[in-house]
Amino acid sequence: MTRECAALLPGVCAALADPRQPGLDDTCLEKLLDWFRSLTWFDQTVELVQDNPCLTELLTSVLALPDPSPSILSFTLQLAGILASSESRFQHLQQEKLLGRLFGQEGPRGSAAWEDASVRSAWVKGVHSMVHHQPALHFLCSTGSMEVIFTLQGDPSLFVASAASQLLVHMLTFSLESETTKALSTKDCDWPVCAQMIVKHIEESLQSGSASHIEQSLKLLSSLFGSCFGSCYAAWTEVLWLDIAKQIESFLLEETVQAQPVLANLLLNVARSPVFCSTEGNFWTLVTSALEHLTPVQAGPLAVGLLKLCKCPQDVRIQALTVLLQPMDCILRAASQPLECAGLLDESVSDPVAVESLLSSKTSCAGLLCQTLAHLEKLLSLKHLRVDLPCVSLLHSLMTILQFCNGFLSPASPLGSTISRNLINCFRVQKSALDVLAALSEKKDCDTLLGSLFDVLLAYLQSPNTNPTVLKKTFQATSKWLVHLQELSSSNSQWQQTEKILEDVFVVLQKRLCSPCWEVRDSSLEFLTAMTKCLRDQKEFRQCLLSSEVLRLTENLLEDPESYVRASAVTAVGHLALITCFAPEPPVIGNQYNKESIVAKLQEILSTDSEGFPRRAVISIFTKWLREGCTGQLADTEQFVSRVIQTVEHDLDWEVRLGGLELVEIFCSQTTCQLAQCPYAPVSSAVTSSTPQNELLRVFCRTKLFGFLFGSLCDCDKPVGQRACDVLVGLRAHFYPMSNLENPQEIEDSPAGRGVAWLQRTLRQGSLAQNFTMDGGDGVDFQDPESMMLALGAIDLLELHDELNKSSDHMEESPQSLLQDILAAVGTIEDNEVDCY
Amino acid sequence: MPEIKVTPLGAGQDVGRSCILVSIAGKNVMLDCGMHMGYNDDRRFPDFSYITQNGRLTDFLDCVIISHFHLDHCGALPYFSEMVGYDGPIYMTHPTKAICPILLEDYRKITVDKKGETNFFTSQMIKDCMKKVVAVHLHQTVQVDEELEIKAYYAGHVLGAAMFQIKVGCESVVYTGDYNMTPDRHLGAAWIDKCRPDLLISESTYATTIRDSKRCRERDFLKKVHETVERGGKVLIPVFALGRAQELCILLETFWERMNLKAPIYFSTGLTEKANHYYKLFITWTNQKIRKTFVQRNMFEFKHIKAFDRAFADNPGPMVVFATPGMLHAGQSLQIFRKWAGNEKNMVIMPGYCVQGTVGHKILSGQRKLEMEGRQILEVKMQVEYMSFSAHADAKGIMQLIRQAEPRNVLLVHGEAKKMEFLKQKIEQEFHVSCFMPANGETTTILTNPCIPVDISLGLLKRETAIGPVPDAKKPKLMHGTLLMKDNSFRLVSPEQALKELGLAEHQLRFTCRVHIQDPRKEHETVLRVYNHLKG
């Protein structure tokens, strides 16, 4: 603790304990606790409480209050817990007889304040902070606190109940970890008292017959096993599991308790714990039986969890996958004519009727499918899936679902027609199915279905009934499959199919770009950009693009009334220009962009658009063009960069200015590479001679980038200053590779030197600098190579760099500032002045 | 018995941020998804892990409804939809959908600018989130799915603010969001029809206050600005991009016009045009006066307020500048503040509350020596004024809304516990309905009357219509019939039809009873009296 904070703390403590003071902002108290947490984390000694007696005085004073406010009582409980987190401070507080009065029977537990959920929550948090040493455990076991914690598991406040459960997990693991020295092979009297109490409570609850108690204990066990990752827990977790396994099995099979989702979660967490990584044993039999007995909705999360495990018996994995695929299988069967399609699975794990009846019901159909699809998407994203997914059938099934949803498939079978009725226009299922479809594009072997797949996708793209969010997902899936199609046609030379599909896509894209709904126009532009990025080198794509109206329509959208659309249009045009304007061999046929006109249009947006998004999009496209060498020879590039700089340096959006600096940085490095043969060649101090370095300096001066860079050092938005400084430090390293300027104190002898001295003084004022003129009117000439060379050498950029990188969080983050705020707030807040938006 | 469950994750006995979960007839709805601006870590967002412990959010929640564009009501939305993974429908009014991304973007820029934070939503995420939003009109019944429907009502407070009715079958909940029952300079008063919801979830910011007239505060504001400008000082008004800023602009613009003042008024970051655009677009959401005069003179076309340039801050002479951000966290408003703070002729007016840790909070609590970055001390000599222009219903307004909607139960949120307690008692006394005030994380369960739809026979309906006055939806009337429960369905038919359908004969039961009357009069006189009494 700093001296300043130590000086402020007594005042703050006195104010907090004063009941006449109005309540403080809760965030202040929370942040104060954060500070104490950080103070006690590394320092276990008793000094904190000894050197700052005001802390214990605060605890005593609050305890003495007849009716403390819930917020101050909560703060006190948490503070006491944090202070008692080390054994020495715990003993100190015990000597002062404070802990019993706060956490024991005579504390708030028995008072009216206990009615307040925040007080109960704070009590649990306080105890949690305290449990880091054995005396704390003994204290809690001997003061009846364990019973209180057990009860709080069922608290009406979700926050309290959850905190109590987490506390018990922490206490049990800590107790077994710290209080035992030998391996715990069986659960007997060797177990520490605290652990015994908790386990006994779990056992009793499980046998109590009370649904709520059973569920609480199952949740507790679930978190307990969920937190066991290290092998050190192995022995006792196994003992614990063996102790309760029979009971769990009976819950599962007898279905007397309606806690199946918790049971599934518990089994999954046990399966994840290191004890059961062996693939033998009764545990896996139980898991198998769970997969059979749980309903498809309950078994889904368990199945997907099992499939993610590294160690799991292969037959369990296959069974889990079967559970997940069952609804997809049912869809396929329902859609096919009798004797036509055999479905997706050879056999099912649980009764297929259960899945059928869920899919037949309007209320459960969408829910089951969405859950299944989400699980499948998760599986497809896994790098190592240890079972084979039947991708072709899966794709078939997905297409069927999508066709049910848009009414393009109405099967004859009764089940099929019921499902299709249930799914028609169901956006939720459409979105989930399209997500899986996009993920499936990464998998191979689906090539035979490509034609019909694009039929389905195009039907969605074309239909006026497609919801905008569904359309966006359709675009995403389409662009992924188009890439796959392109790869495929390169290998099997089926260009015609690709061309036909692309033509259809462009026709629908033209229509969508004219949609009255801005969301649709924007998604269409994003799709166009995504496609262009991936396919710009493909001949078929370029042909279809140039023969369509898409280029013109996209250009028109640069003037869209919606700024998001303008920004997306800028990005799309920027990428399309790489094909039509900047390609090494520009296309000779079809619609094209006029290079000058496109550059002028984007430049116009950069200088006049009233919104930040389009301007930011322009600067990032310009940067991309520069990076890809599209801006022509050096002279043209110089002119281009100069124009951009003059536009962005006055932009009100700091991210545009930052984008401008990125462009400058790239320009500097590219020009340096072009002009300087050897970047490490020593530089002569006389800038008149015509070395590559001097030419470089002159180019930079002509581009007016120094004015922008030095001006940005005084920007009111910090990231701009930091970036500008980075660029200048880079330039300085180039022009002064070995050392600093000789005799910097003599710089004021020349006019250039006087200008640089003015610049130095101005920069010292930082963002408070007045009228920092970029054209050098006042002091320094930013376009004079000699002055700039001098400035780069004379100004201590590294110091400036450190200064700019200094945390600006002092006011928001520092404890001193917080303590000052609390003291200042005391007495100034009138009761009714608590305000909000 | 059917029940409605309400669990606040935010706004339960506090005003930090709103996020309330409602379960009604098997449907789960999230009301608002706000951000707490007082924290810089994960605590700024509600802890969504409590919504569902097993399973995906999108499967659990049927929809999210946002009441208005203030960040404490919508600030966590891009985080929730793009980072936590909620992919279901989101509803808000058209103006809220248009303005929300501007404020989110504004806040994102400040956060990223100040901290260089990476664990925060990006511009792209804000856009992606907004593209998922379904915009609704006032009084339009929107069918979320076959059973769940929602309807928006005008709430005043800020442009586009709405109260929402959520209805499943015959159970319904009304959520007020923030509302204002008195019209202000640019908005009208909140209004709702007599929808008799099972539950009204009402904000209670000013639960115990009867607020003084806003006119007084406005006069005070104009006086302070005028005096400062007259003595040659500069006035800085830190604001958030949209909302209160426009209200104050109208105020100053009209005053400047009336007093023929010449000192320049500037508005930073080009927001005037944007604000103009939205207020014009949503003119139907403003109050009657603005709508009426719109054709002659658009209130939002400011003659005296010009766009600000960074160099203007150093110009000599008086001026008034509206600059963002509103709490003097960073950026332009902080830069101007630092330049002007040293001169006692100048003034800063904070028109809204500031969270701890900001320069705004410090100067409002009276601190005059501020340790800025680089440990420089900034001495604040300029005058510091605080003026609350927040537009919430006061105690009177809340009672008025309850009278208007006639709910069966009331639940208070978005207020302080002590004040809620007071208002709760008042509501229970005056309206004889139960009133609840759950803390964050606490679930309130409200039992509702089961509602069973019954078909009525056409014959009975015709007969009843023929007897009574013309049917009127506003005047429900009692109807007598026989309820037939057959094959899992309920039908109300006339007694004759019931007998016919069931193949039963009609029996008439006569009840007699013997009464002893002790009357000194003659027997026939007594009989006559009893006869007349019964006849009457």
UniProtKB/TrEMBL annotation, chain A:
Entry keyword annotation includes Protein biosynthesis: no
Cellular component terms (Gene Ontology): cytoplasm; nucleus
Predominant cellular place of this UniProt entry's protein: cytoplasm
Protein's cellular compartments: Cytoplasm
GO terms, biological process: cell population proliferation; DNA damage response
Keywords carried by this UniProt record: Cytoplasm
Keyword Cytoplasm (UniProt): yes
UniProt-listed InterPro entries: ARM-like, ARM-type_fold, BRAT1
Protein family per UniProt: Belongs to the BRAT1 family.
Name of protein: BRAT1 protein
Organism of provenance: Certhia brachydactyla (short-toed tree-creeper)
Gene name as annotated: Brat1
TrEMBL record, chain B:
SUPFAM superfamilies: Metallo-hydrolase/oxidoreductase
Any one cellular-component term (Gene Ontology): cytoplasm
GO function term, MF aspect, one: RNA endonuclease activity
Residues annotated as domain Beta-Casp: 245-363
Location(s) in or outside the cell: Cytoplasm; Nucleus
Family (UniProt): Belongs to the metallo-beta-lactamase superfamily. RNA-metabolizing metallo-beta-lactamase-like family. INTS11 subfamily.
UniProt protein name: Integrator complex subunit 11
